[in-house]
Write a sequence for this structure.
């Protein structure tokens, strides 16, 4: 639609926020505007000649729009843009910077599960999955997206307060020769070398070794 | 007017563990503060950009007689380096480092290593040497020198688990720093040995 | 090393890409993505592209920003040493140039020459992560 002149202040801080390649466009409302502002969103694949409207984000009053489906090919790069409307006037289109899902996403920590015997603990790590369109769709682990993925594992002896670190590439770790009847807390982080990406450390999973028989 | 301000002399590079510094002797003018500016030229600038020189802003009009080049010398190609003095509007001729500098010649020191036995567990802590470094850690059960095991560690400055140890056995560890970007390694750190069941050792 | 090139580019990516207002054209990735290049042709395409950047791109990317210029210099010099390593593959005849790689590279040159030289150079520099993603994935 050809709005002749748009005097409304622009949406601010238009950017992608991406976690495990769930790519959501976020923005802040134009300065000084209260309720009642509506927005519409469009996106484009970098290098391809057209902007594409996102129907589900037309005339919305929220300040985010999930573009995961439209930006799921991580071999492409993208732009997105937002326009605001209020009382018959509008703002300019405000664009993101160029978004590269492969390098610009954040990675969640791995899932950690721990079991124990009297003198050992077994740790199993599961890398998060790439965002997918529907539960029925085939899951893609981030391990497939980032082949050089490693795990840094921290094991804390709650009695001695000593913390050990392990750097492993497979997803299981057995720590033998531990003290019986002792609590150990495990947390893990994902480390990707190319491109350089680190998840945070997972929350701690604590487990006690069994008491000596 | 430039003529009477002498060019800096004794220009040299100090390069250790992938940190590179240009140094020179001060140009002395009684009662005045002489300042210096440094420029670099990589192989790319020589071969493809009309032998252009690039100034280092952190070392432009500096009173120091040293300049940290580490951020700029970030390719394994020959670089030329030059520095000139300035006093007010008067500038000296450029003093140029003799020959070229390539970071592949940096001197690499063995890593600082601390080996700990915690119960049956063999652990090491390595001092951080910078993002370019990884560490090759060799460890073996004393008496079984032919069965050396190896781990390559990137994340450091924390207690890293190497292996579990047999009851009461003594294990020895040594490590070398490796820089993938220049494909070179330091010499090995002195060997440290600890015994299973709680023996600890001090930094060397 | 490629990791150092990536770190250097990450430091100036936003600055460089903001200088490229043309969203509808890409030098490297359209109409056919680099990821579609057959594995047998990858070495040749990579060598062509490293040479393309050294010969045609970096020299037209001088900016008013000293920090950006210094990062471009370290990227350009790193390209020389990466290309030298890749050159060793060519010497061992592991870098065959098939029809596809020649076609792909022609397409890239055509995209490049379709723009004025400064815009084309700045756009190509802004697409360095496309090249690096592809090179690292192909390793």
């Amino acid at each position: 639609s050809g709005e002749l002149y748009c005097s409304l202040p622009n949406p601010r801080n238009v950017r992608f926020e991406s976690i495990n390649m769930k790519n959501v466009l976020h923005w802040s409302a134009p300065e000084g505007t209260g309720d009642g502002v509506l927005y519409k969103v469009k996106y484009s694949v970098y290098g391809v000649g057209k902007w594409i409207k996102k129907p589900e984000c037309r005339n919305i009053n929220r300040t985010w729009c999930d573009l995961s489906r439209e930006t799921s090919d991580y071999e492409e790069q993208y732009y997105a843009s937002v326009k605001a409307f209020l009382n018959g006037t509008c703002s300019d289109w405000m664009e993101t910077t160029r978004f590269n899902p492969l390098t610009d996403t954040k990675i969640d920590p791995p899932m950690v599960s721990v079991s124990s015997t009297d003198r050992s603990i077994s740790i199993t790590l599961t890398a998060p999955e790439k965002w997918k369109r529907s539960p029925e769709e085939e899951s893609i682990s981030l391990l497939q997206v980032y082949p050089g993925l490693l795990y840094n594992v921290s094991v804390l002896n709650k009695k001695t307060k000593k913390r050990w670190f392990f750097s492993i590439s497979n997803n299981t770790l057995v720590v033998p020769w531990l003290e019986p009847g002792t609590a150990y807390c495990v947390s893990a982080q994902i480390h990707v070398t190319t491109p350089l990406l680190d998840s945070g450390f997972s929350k701690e999973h604590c487990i006690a070794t069994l008491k000596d028989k | 007017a430039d003529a009477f301000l002498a060019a800096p002399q004794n220009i040299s590079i100090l390069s250790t563990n992938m940190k590179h510094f240009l140094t020179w002797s001060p140009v002395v003018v009684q009662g005045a503060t002489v300042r210096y500016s440094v420029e670099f030229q990589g192989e790319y600038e020589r071969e493809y950009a009309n032998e252009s020189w690039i100034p280092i802003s952190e070392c432009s009009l500096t009173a120091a007689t040293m300049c940290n080049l580490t951020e700029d010398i970030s390719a394994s190609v020959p670089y030329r380096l030059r520095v000139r003095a300035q006093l007010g509007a008067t500038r000296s001729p450029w003093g140029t480092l003799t020959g070229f500098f390539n970071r592949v010649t940096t001197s690499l020191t063995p890593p600082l290593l601390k080996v700990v036995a915690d119960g049956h567990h063999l652990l090491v802590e390595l001092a951080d040497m910078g993002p370019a470094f990884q560490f090759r850690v060799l460890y073996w059960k004393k008496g079984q020198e032919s069965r050396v095991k190896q781990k390559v560690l990137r994340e450091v400055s924390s207690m890293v688990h190497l292996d579990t140890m047999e009851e009461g056995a003594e294990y020895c560890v040594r490590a070398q720093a490796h820089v993938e970007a220049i494909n070179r390694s330091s010499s090995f750190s002195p060997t440290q040995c600890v015994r299973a069941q709680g023996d600890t050792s001090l930094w060397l | 090393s490629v990791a150092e090139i990536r770190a250097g580019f990450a430091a100036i990516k936003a600055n460089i890409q903001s200088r490229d207002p043309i969203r509808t054209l890409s030098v490297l990735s359209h109409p056919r993505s680099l990821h579609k290049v057959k594995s047998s042709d990858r070495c040749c395409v990579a060598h062509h592209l490293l040479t393309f950047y050294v010969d045609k791109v970096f020299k037209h990317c001088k900016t008013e920003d000293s920090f950006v210029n210094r990062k471009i210099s370290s990227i350009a010099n790193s390209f020389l040493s990466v290309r030298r390593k890749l050159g060793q593959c060519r010497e061992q005849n592991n870098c065959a140039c098939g029809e596809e790689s020649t076609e792909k590279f022609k397409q890239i040159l055509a995209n490049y020459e379709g723009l004025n030289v400064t815009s084309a150079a700045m756009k190509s520099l802004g697409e360095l992560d496309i090249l690096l993603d592809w090179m690292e994935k192909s390793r």
